Amino acid sequence: MKVALPFVAWATLLTVLAAVLWVWSSDHVPPAIFTAAAAVAWCVGLYALFHRFPRALRRAPDLSLGSALVAAAITMLLVGLLVGEWLLLIGGGALLICLVCVARELRADRRVQ
To answer: Where are the alpha helices (DSSP H) in 1-113?
Structure first.
């Protein structure tokens, strides 16, 4: 169940975005892309929900705040390319801080094993 939670949450978000785009968009390409992405995310989420994974895969932590923050920082950097230098600077600083968080998580994980 815990393995499938991020996939189901992502699929739900994509489904909502696809529905909003189908209602308010005059072009059919972006809603079709979001619908296809939502369908793939639902397939992966349902597979993860009903599939039994071996015990060796369950030793990893369920959630990693550092890796999620790294993804958000990379997103800020990519959006900063369009928005401006101020968001690039914020994203770069956030990325450095988040990479330190990931390094601390990896070091703590090595101590446990």
So the answer is: 5-24, 29-50, 65-83, 85-112
